[in-house]
């Protein structure tokens, strides 16, 4: 373990174990990979934390839950469906830290969900934003200040390449535009949330995890999966456990408002300020998409 990682891990343990009352944590995508490693690390640093993991894989959850302490639970939901996001958030009565790590890696083209939203955009962006929207009342009343972490890609968003005439990519879908819309919109929506005076007690962080050795690549077609697995086997990327400590470091940062953090959980200072107009457009579009018509 590098000395930086050792220092960060010790600081995470010190901060989390001192929280009073112990934190109530929700990890969406906590049944695998980075989300699972974050849930386990928080449980290790703060055994009295209440940790709720959300995903679809019940057998994976049953293996993880005993390691998360007596106050942990699993809520099953397909969070690509806004109706399921709405239903599952109704089952949550308190949250101090909302961590969203749900995701998929596929090269499929536009794949509409039953709600006619592209699957990847629903999972990586609209469903996550709805989680925040539904849980904001609880996050605002968090005694230590609510904290929200979006794990996606805080480094590569490019709002100047957003298709503002087809924001949900219903007619102009491409893999590159789907990726850019999800990550650029995340950059912009955290700035919207942070600008609302009623959210002054909540911090919104968008993180880039870097290359992490998880099973994310398993959905790729074999001609991409095999080389990807080869690279992972050669040790390219970091372990989910290392990534978890960096991501926890990112979410525990003390600044208020919104932040983008890199794969070490450190603030990205070179981020260009967004145009007000982009933030407004993204919020108007998003609030329409996540309204209860779905
Ligand atoms: N690993 C990397 O190198 C890397 C790099 C950059 C960005 N990221 C981003 O980091 C995030 C986490 O990646 P990871 O590597 O930890 O992936 P992972 O190991 O495949 O975990 C993905 C998680 O998302 C959940 N999930 C996927 N689809 C879902 C659905 N429809 N409903 C509910 N839960 C769903 C899975 O739960 P169930 O299986 O239980 O449904 C699982 O817990 C992703 O957003 C990914 O894009 C990862």
Automatic annotation (TrEMBL):
Pfam families: adh_short. Gene3D superfamilies: NAD(P)-binding Rossmann-like Domain. InterPro entries: NAD(P)-bd_dom_sf (IPR036291), SDR_fam (IPR002347), Sec_Metab_Biosynth_Oxidored (IPR052228). One of its GO terms (molecular function) is oxidoreductase activity. Keywords: Oxidoreductase. This is Uncharacterized protein. It comes from Adineta ricciae.
